[in-house]
Amino acid sequence: MTTTTVTLPDELHASLKRVAEAEHRSANATIIVAVEQYVRARDKRAAVGAIAAEVAERHRELLDRLAQ
Q1: Residue 59 near residue 66, CB atoms below 8 Å
Q2: pTM, 2 dp
Q3: Secondary structure string (H, E, C) spanning the chain
Q4: Which of 13, 32, 33, 63 could be joined to 8 by an S-S link, Cβ 3.0–4.6 Å?
Q5: Residue 8 vs residues 27, 34, 46: alpha-carbon distances, Å
Q6: Which CB contacts under 8 angstroms, 24+ apart, belong to 16-23?
Q7: How far apart are alpha carbons 20 and 17 in whole angstroms?
């Protein structure tokens, strides 16, 4: 496990504490959940982008004809 220090604006820190309390988690656990969700979403977008690029390349001729 790695320790990372994050400096949050006061307003965001207060919001984080409220969310953590409402979800019966620590602020640390809430940050971990948020980062996991963010990273997972970015990975999904990258995978979809790669698939779209592959499909576009594979069907370039057809797409060019359709664009005319």
Answers
A1: no
A2: 0.69
A3: CCCCCCCCCHHHHHHHHHHHHHCCCCHHHHHHHHHHHHHHHHHHHHHHHHHHHHHHHHCHHHHHHHHC
A4: 13
A5: 12, 14, 28
A6: none
A7: 5
Q: What would the two tokens of residue 41 be?
A: 């979403």
Full pLDDT tens readout for the chain, 68 residues: 999 999 999 999 999 999 999 999 999 999 999 999 999 999 998 889 889 999 988 898 888 888 88
Q: What count of other Cβ atoms lies within 10 Å of the Cβ of residue 27?
A: 14
Q: Which two tokens stand for residue 13?
A: 């820190």
